[in-house]
Amino acid sequence: MNDPAPRQAENRRLTAKLWLFVAGSFAFGFALVPLYRVLCQVTGIGDQKQLTAVSRLAQPGTVDTARTVTIEFIGNLPTVGNWEFRPAQPTLAVHPGKLYEASFIARNLTGHDTVAQAVPNIAPGEAVSAFHKTQCFCFAPQSFKSGEERVLPIRFFVDRALPPGIDRITLSYTFYDTAPRVAAR
Asked: Going by C-beta distance under 8 Å and a sequence separation of 6 or more, which residues neighbour residue 111?
């Protein structure tokens, strides 16, 4: 009849390989954080310290009144029900080179004091280098009391070097409740 020993040995080898795969996947997940930081430092994309420094150095120039660019504001939440987060106005018509101010409204609906962080995104990608924030609530985490509503300002200008084919820029923020992540550490 069939000898079960070779089949058991094969099963043990397969089980060991699967456990190695699981351990490797777990280790890779932890390695992604430092790899992302290195990628941000090398490319300059997503590095909050570098973005903050660049935005503070950028200054508006002469105003191009012949050109109008529409800035669209979008507020996103990764989960539903814990926050209210939206732009104070959906769009703003701007002239390149002129400093503007807009704002978002955030309300803490978590039922407890917490800290939140906004992560920006600018589209289209060609407009990223021409969109300069001089002041933004996204530069630092924001502390909120339970039920607190706050107007979060942003000051920005669009560089005159914006490619000519771009007449609309979308500025979106995803608003994350960072307290659970901080507590988990």
From this structure: 146
